């Protein structure tokens, strides 16, 4: 069974840097600004052959009840309670501070194994700060540098010893299989006229083995963290009236009717012109990474404010990434004119993003736990359409009927002929069209095909992609043979 390590300490001692180092990838935002991390973040980590579940926490700070510092401290206390072993970091360059002493006493009262880590131990000038650690009464400190990866061998031995003291075999763990065996779909598409062609969706073959990745995005203070807490049934994420509480994307594992789901809480996306601070730019980049790795994205709107220009821009980014989309209209209990709010939302989507016509809209109140039971059925339906597969033969029958009803336009006196097509990918549904002049096919006509396909095959609100390829000329080889034959007759064999 995999054991759990929690990384704790006061702000700006390098907890997120060590978290990223042990996780083997950049998951947590790292910045010199104290207090960047606010929610606890989880990932699988390892040191050599030692694998474990890892929890990054907010900086330990004291605050009055109900304040942001108090809410962050409660999240850290929950992580300590959940962990088998706690890693307490302090800054060896600064030495042991009063705050370190205060939280060292708190960890001693927790009666769980604590490994004291003296971070930022690059060079010899920090030896005095390392010796100060003995005043905390937490045993020998482990000198390390999370940024440079120094001292991890010693940390390995300390972790093994701490686990043996509490009767846990550190090597009796199960391999983390998430993502194992996935392969990229290398299908290059059909040859023209191959009605028996059906692509193999290797990417979707492992869906039953991994959780559905669902990202919640939207403007600041729309209620994203509140929604996730309501879905999972616990105060997993920090919430409050302050805008911009979430700074980096937090993954929360959950299960809905037997289906594993990985929820991603993300930082609020403001207008680009208002984003000036480095930390917010990093938060926005982290949010967009969450969208790229998600399969379904829920765009959360504030029902009291209605849809705004920034919401439409976020929806457009989701569509460009090719993700399935569900719109959640939050704070529905506080909306006075509900019919007018829904009408304005549908009008704005029809006018600005016609490709999202028919996208599912779910009205909820995350704070009051109302309407939450309608979210996952809508997500499941959007996910199903995102994985839709249309066989080659029905697709070409549809294509023939659609072209007959409205033929492709002519360009410079030459008619564009679309001869054949097939679906080459799902997630989102992607199609390849063979035509004689692929570069000249107008975007307006491609949008016409998208709309017709979406309507005829019942794919509302799903991003569709069309790629055009130049079809081969069936008479090209015959003309070359005739030309060579005439040339041979004209000159004769052996003529000069």
TrEMBL record:
Q: Where is this region: Disordered?
A: 470-496
Which residues bind GTP 1 per the record? 9-16, 56-60, 119-122
Outline the extent of the EngA-type G domain: 3-167, 212-387
Q: Which SUPFAM superfamilies match?
A: P-loop containing nucleoside triphosphate hydrolases (SSF52540)
Protein name per UniProt = GTPase Der
How it assembles, according to the record, is: Associates with the 50S ribosomal subunit.
Q: Which InterPro entries match?
A: G_ENGA (IPR031166), GTP-bd (IPR006073), GTPase_Der (IPR016484), KH_dom-like (IPR032859), KH_dom-like_a/b (IPR015946), P-loop_NTPase (IPR027417), Small_GTP-bd (IPR005225)
**Organism, scientific name:** Kordiimonas sediminis
The gene that this protein is the product of is der
Relate the protein's function as given in its record. Answer: GTPase that plays an essential role in the late steps of ribosome biogenesis.
- Which Pfam families does the entry link to? KH_dom-like, MMR_HSR1
Q: Report which superkingdom the organism of origin falls in.
A: Bacteria
Instruction: Tell me the keywords, alphabetical order.
Output: GTP-binding, Nucleotide-binding, Repeat, Ribosome biogenesis
Which residues bind GTP 2 per the record? 218-225, 265-269, 330-333
- Quote the biased-composition stretches of kind Basic residues, using this chain's numbering: 486-496
UniProt feature, compositional bias: Basic and acidic residues: 476-485
